[in-house]
Amino acid sequence: MKRCFITGVTGQDGSYLAELLLDRGDEVHGIIRRSSSFNTWRIHERFQNQDGQKKFYLHYGDLSDGMNLVRLLREIQPDYIFNLAAQSHVRISFDIPEYTGEVTGLSTLRLLEAIRQAGLADRVRFYQASSSEMFGSAPPPQSEETPFAPRSPYACAKAFSYYITKNYRESYGMFATNGVLFNHESPRRGENFVTRKITLNLARIKYGLSDTLALGNLDARRDWGFARDYMEAAVLMLEHDYPDDFVIATGESHSVRELAEQAARLLDMSIEWNGEGRNEVGRDAKTGKVLIVIDPKYFRPAEVDHLEGDATKAKATLGWSPKTSFQDLIRMMVEHDARECSREAYTKRLQ
Ligand code: NAP
Ligand code: GDD
């Protein structure tokens, strides 16, 4: 049994990771922020009614509060620390660059120092949620050998966190590992990331809950995997014999346009594209109705055009490989969102 400490436990990855660890019989401690609206839906609906076997504990905390982190680590004495907390939205990082640098970058240093202050540097194993976004404009396929070329305040902050994690490994001999994860999605994905935005909003259109979906760059390509598969990799990294840096990816990429077409097909709609640039629209081929429009507010000041990872090292060293195909991932998300929208439409009809 391992005692695990997760920052970002209320997020997509944190909720899958907590489940995986609890299912193995580990004890899980997560930090949650006090916020004006309830933000624990991903974990509460799963862990609220504990059956006595599950050891899941939530503590108030914030990555910007170093004293609190030291106190929590002293009290909890974790074996594993997973640092998943971040301002994780790339587009939004251009609006709040300083805050993103603080939370997504500097806070990793704060947490690593808290580990030292709490006297855990010799025994704790630390996982840093690094990102393929750090590769930025570097051409695909990207692997552990690819130099970083970050294109956003978010990516720059993640690059700082990557290097400081490596630095604490080299300077203090800490077991500090970077998981450089490519995009990973699920029905629990935040609604303003492009996969979920598409599956949810096309489902809303299908069930008459909204009219159109506004998107930005349709031609960006991403390597999209399933979040739970990727959290399995994070656990394997901390169970490995030594700390290191690992790329986690499917090795396959698709454009935002292909993603929208695939999601629409699963909802019995077929998209036909007309026009160019900002005037391009996606119409329902059967009815001619406009389903997708372009809104420049979703363009980024600097875009990452193509991410496609090479996870050969993780396969060879950790024995990890993805279990879920792109098609199955999008199907899972569409089915989830269609179910929710159909229920909402039904309730509206009754009112
Ligand atoms: P997410 O759903 O946006 O979750 C982010 C988490 O960080 C939330 O639990 C959030 O808490 C927490 N958080 C934000 N600011 C905090 C602060 N100041 N103190 C404490 N907690 C804070 O992100 P995700 O998709 O699960 O991703 C997990 C991590 O992996 C992130 O670091 C992300 O940058 C990185 N990553 C993600 C991907 C991906 O494709 N998903 C790929 C590579 C790397 P609240 O609920 O209170 O907001
Ligand atoms: N969010 C969003 N909304 N993205 C859009 C839209 C839109 O309306 N229209 C097009 N896109 C394009 C973006 O320009 C980008 O090229 C691509 O879709 C993916 O955008 P996101 O889903 O927001 O993800 P991301 O790749 O920027 O960042 C995610 O993956 C990173 C790993 O590479 C986040 O999860 C990061 O936290 C993570 O590190």
Automatic annotation (TrEMBL):
Reactions catalysed, semicolon-separated, are:
GDP-alpha-D-mannose = GDP-4-dehydro-alpha-D-rhamnose + H2O
Q: Which domain of life is it from?
A: Bacteria
* An example molecular function term from Gene Ontology annotations: NADP+ binding
InterPro entries for the chain: GDP_Man_deHydtase (IPR006368), NAD(P)-bd_dom (IPR016040), NAD(P)-bd_dom_sf (IPR036291)
Q: EC no.?
A: 4.2.1.47
Under the heading Pfam families, the entry gives: GDP_Man_Dehyd
List the transmembrane segments.
Answer: none
Q: Where is each NAD(P)-binding domain found?
A: 5-333
UniProt entry tagged with the keyword NADP: yes
Mind telling me which SUPFAM superfamilies this protein's record contains?
A: NAD(P)-binding Rossmann-fold domains
Q: Which GO terms describe its biological process?
A: 'de novo' GDP-L-fucose biosynthetic process
Q: Per the entry, which co-factors are needed? A: NADP(+)
Q: Which UniProt keywords apply?
A: Lyase, NADP
Summary of the function given for this chain in its UniProt record: Catalyzes the conversion of GDP-D-mannose to GDP-4-dehydro-6-deoxy-D-mannose.
Give the family per the record. Belongs to the NAD(P)-dependent epimerase/dehydratase family. GDP-mannose 4,6-dehydratase subfamily.
Q: What is this protein called?
A: GDP-mannose 4,6-dehydratase
Species of origin reads candidate division WWE3 bacterium
User: Which lineage ranks, top first, belong to the organism behind this chain?
Assistant: Bacteria, Katanobacteria
Its gene is gmd
